[in-house]
Amino acid sequence: MQEIKRKYVIPGDKIIEGNFRPLMNVMKTGNSVVATRIGIAEAGRDGIKVIPLSGVYIPRVNDIVIGKITDHSSLSWEVDINSCFSAHLPAQDIFGRDFSPARDDMNRQLATGDLITARIVAFDRTRDPMLTVQDKDLGKIPRGELLKISATRVPRLIGKRGSMIQTIEQATQTRIMIGQNGIIVVTGKRLDGIQLAIRAIKMVEEEAHMSNLTQRIKTLLNVSDGSQTDIQVNQLPENQKDSNLKVEESESEMEIGQ
Amino acid sequence: MTQTRNLIDEKGIRTDGRTGDELRKIKIEVGVVKNADGSAYIEFGNNKIIVAVYGPREVHPKHMALPDRCVLRCRYHMSPFSTDTRKNPAPSRREVEISKVIREALEPALMLEDYPRAAIDVFVEVLQADGGSRCAGITAASVALADAGINMRDIVTACAAGKVDERIVLDINDTEDKEGGADMPVAYLPHLNQITLLQLDGSLSSEQFNECLDKALNGCKSIYEIQRLALMKKYFGSESEEIREEQ
What we know:
The complex is a heterodimer.
Chain A: E1 7-9, E2 14-17, E3 22-24, E4 26-29, E5 32-35, E6 39-43, E7 48-52, E8 64-72, E9 76-80, E10 87-90, H1 92-95, H2 106-109, E11 115-124, E12 127-132, E13 139-141, E14 145-148, H3 154-158, H4 163-172, E15 174-178, E16 183-188, H5 191-206, H6 213-227, H7 231-235, H8 238-256
Parallel strand pairs in A: 3-7
Antiparallel strand pairs in A: 1-6, 2-5, 4-5, 6-7, 8-9, 8-11, 9-10, 11-12, 11-13, 14-16, 15-16
Helix pairs in contact in A: 4-5, 4-6, 4-8, 5-6
Chain B: E1 26-30, E2 38-44, E3 47-58, E4 71-78, H1 93-106, E5 118-128, H2 133-147, E6 157-164, E7 167-170, H3 174-179, E8 182-189, E9 194-198, E10 201-202, H4 206-236
Parallel strand pairs in B: 4-5
Antiparallel strand pairs in B: 1-2, 2-3, 3-5, 6-7, 6-8, 8-9, 8-10
Helix pairs in contact in B: 1-2, 2-4
């Protein structure tokens, strides 16, 4: 397949002419492929797609999301996943197959207002998304700072193979959980580290489409390292620093779930 | 519509100093309402309009939801201070009608079937009105919808043309609308070459109608370039044509 240069498009723009497969955020009109959203058009081996730069979160099967319990019926919890569809988490997912609405108290496991990390197991045009917490690193989130970014910025925040998020985690000594729906939970031992991580995340969101972002994030983290008490991060003994890094690397790979 | 004075002088200059084929000054800014999913501010001559788009989001009341596609809801509203005499903020007959025509002008451009059981809300708030506010509203609304990241077949662009002193002119202003012979707002999909709104207030012969439509479509094409530039500026800055993404 002929390779095309990546280009910026708005809805209605013709990306390429010819018999190409439309993949994502594009449509075929006659012999050409046309963009349907603002973003960066890319042509790969398998077809043409537009990486969107704006928009709300639309659930996809196998996405890892962070959601808030808003209510429960006798058989399932209702979860707000920052989308136009509210998700459902079946009670059997937590209580097991012998769940009995009469015997088991759902509020004891997950109460209204609790935050959970979950995976979308089923979603289509006719049904609301169905969640599961039966996987490694899924389930209730006990503590952390919550923030929201646009779901279209999530891949940028994670970076290539988790590079961006690892940079932030290491520099601020925090653990950052990212849901594909744009909800983020930052945990850490130190308040200033958490605040710095939040600033870095917000910067990624605002400047996601600009070049040299990784470098600018590094500058932000370094500058703040000098001015704030984070100086101690740099003063950690070498061996301690290394052990921290290893733990965080392995954790962040698991939680990203891209 | 009785004409009391000449609206075009002997040199062909109109009341606001424009020639027959000239648009008013247009400025579009994208992303002005932080709380909205997409927004735009347009200055179309003396018209000043803010448009905010929310969605796709959950439909309330729930019975309004459609099983196979998204509900598009539009609200065109003129602020009490948008005209020289205070305008009652309650929705008037005219506003209800314009809300409907704006919705119908935008609907063909949107891929509503991509978001079943959801709703998209478009709020068009006129801060200052000077004739042609529905066209300016549609123009800004489609930019705001694109800003909201909603799948669209094309950008909708709108412009009016009309008859003043028996001459067909582009982009009718308030005085020309009130005192002129005809006003014809047109909304248009430039890539698909389709018309999504065509209204006509006044009377035109068939030749005049064709000339008027051609003028309006040409106006739409010029406005499209401004819309495009505004979106590109917001998302890609000044270096719109080259890519320097690291991702």
